[in-house]
Write a structure and sequence with these properties.
Shape: elongated
Number of strands: 22
Largest sheet: 7 strands, antiparallel
Strand content: 25-35%
CATH topology of the largest domain: FAD/NAD(P)-binding domain
Distance between the termini: 11 Å
Radius of gyration: 26 Å
Strand order of the largest sheet: 17-16-13-14-15-12-18
Oligomer: single chain
CATH architecture of the largest domain: 3-Layer(bba) Sandwich
Structural class: alpha+beta
CATH class of the largest domain: Alpha Beta
Length: 410
């Protein structure tokens, strides 16, 4: 049996290795269009590679996927993060878990994961062809109903295979191959990106962070979503886990609204606005002679406390005894429902994941085989599946790659 894996990323390599593991007689070749395979693995996690997440309950795990959560439940019962950890351990790579559940190689180097996958592929007899630019992938029948695939390269050469796995990530070329083979594509938009916010309250505060906030937004159609987590002020706006998660769950809403929306930030979600107001009243009674600039009443960074005080028109030399009830209400409001205008995505190229891809209704998730074109399989980000930050997108690649690889040789 001849198998072509189009795409030399995480899903493609794992699919190839899984196929070779289950049938050592199969001829398996990875066709990577660039000169360097596993590019995203190399740069992910700041060069450390966030391999997976320490979540071993499939039902809980799928809740981290804005798109594809229902479809992934079955595959996660076949291969989940516990299996990922065991697989890498079996190939000499130990993973460690951090406080937030993310899992990295103990070396803190993505090259450890890259080398492991390259070595596993080589030891399994998988061929890796770099700079292999596929031009088209079509099907034909031989010997009656037996279907084969013909892959044509840019140089004009054609090759025939019995099975094809499309694992081209978010590359539009892979979507064109899928469409040519009968599939429909859900339009792709960015996911996991930062927010561009030009607001006087943030100016000059880059690097200021908040441990736990609640953020929410509404699109023009009034759909509302919210997330919690850490928040970071940047030179161009807002970032951090809370923003990245919100961008994932709100990817379609934000795209539909041309990345223009109102963001509401609750900097102290454990307290209500009324509780903050009462606390400020009590603080005024007890600290009337102190300057407001010297006393950040709540657990927010001093730089932001000073900025909010200035924003509502209180000078830093003002003593608490002079602060009006209206001013205290404004402080409480700013800290519990501060409103900021999102005017676009972050100005830097930080998008790492897209939502959209091959329509999930057209894929059998028991095998990752196409329902429309027998012998064609899918794995990874080419599908309309994406997860939030934290190792979930790589786990989708490992899982769907493993299921597809095993099924191709069944």
């Amino acid at each position: 049996m001849r198998i072509a894996i189009i795409g030399g990323g995480a899903a493609g390599f794992f699919g190839a290795i899984a196929a070779a593991t289950h049938d050592s007689s199969a001829e398996i070749v990875i066709l990577e269009s660039t000169k360097q395979p596993l590019a995203k693995v190399r740069v992910s996690g700041g060069g450390r590679c966030n391999v997976t997440h320490h979540c071993f309950d499939p039902a809980e795990l799928v809740e981290n996927y804005p798109r594809g959560n229902r479809e992934l439940l079955g595959p996660f019962h076949q291969f989940q993060p516990r299996d990922t950890v065991a697989w890498f351990a079996g190939h000499g790579v130990q993973l460690k878990v951090e406080a937030d559940g993310r899992m990295f190689p103990v070396t803190d180097q993505s090259s450890t994961i890259v080398d492991c996958l390259l070595n596993a592929a080589a030891q399994s007899g998988v061929q890796v062809r770099l700079d292999a630019k596929v031009k088209s992938a079509g099907t034909f029948f031989r010997n009656g109903d037996s279907r084969q695939f013909e892959i044509e390269f840019g140089c004009g050469i054609g090759e025939r295979y019995d099975r094809v796995l499309l694992a081209t990530g978010g590359n539009p070329q892979g979507h064109l191959f899928a469409e040519a083979l009968g599939h429909s594509i859900v339009p792709c938009v960015s996911s996991l990106f930062t927010f561009k916010v030009t607001d006087a309250r943030l100016r000059g505060l880059a690097g200021t962070s908040f441990n736990n906030v609640r953020i929410s937004l509404k699109g023009k159609d009034k759909r509302k979503i919210e997330q919690t987590g850490a928040l970071l002020i940047t030179h161009w706006g807002l970032s951090g886990p809370a923003v990245l998660k919100l961008s994932a769950w709100g990817a379609r809403i934000l795209a539909d609204n041309d990345y223009q929306a109102e963001l509401t930030v609750d900097f102290l979600p454990q307290h209500s606005e009324q509780e903050l107001y009462r606390t400020l009243l009590a603080h005024k009674e007890q600290n009337g002679r102190k300057h407001i600039k010297n006393t950040a009443v709540f657990p927010v960074p001093n730089r932001y406390w000073h900025r909010i005080v200035q924003y509502i028109g209180i000078t830093e030399e003002t003593r608490w005894s002079s602060v009006t009830k209206e001013a205290m209400k404004s402080i409480a409001s700013e800290l519990t429902r501060g409103r900021f205008a999102i005017v676009g995505k972050g100005i830097f190229k930080v998008e790492f994941v897209t939502c959209g891809g091959v329509n999930l209704r057209e894929v059998d998730f028991k095998t990752m085989q196409s329902k429309l074109c027998p012998g064609l399989f899918f794995a990874g980000e080419i599908l309309d599946i994406d997860g939030i930050t934290g190792g979930f997108n790589f786990q989708n690649a490992w899982t769907t790659g493993w299921v597809a690889g095993k099924s191709m040789v069944a």
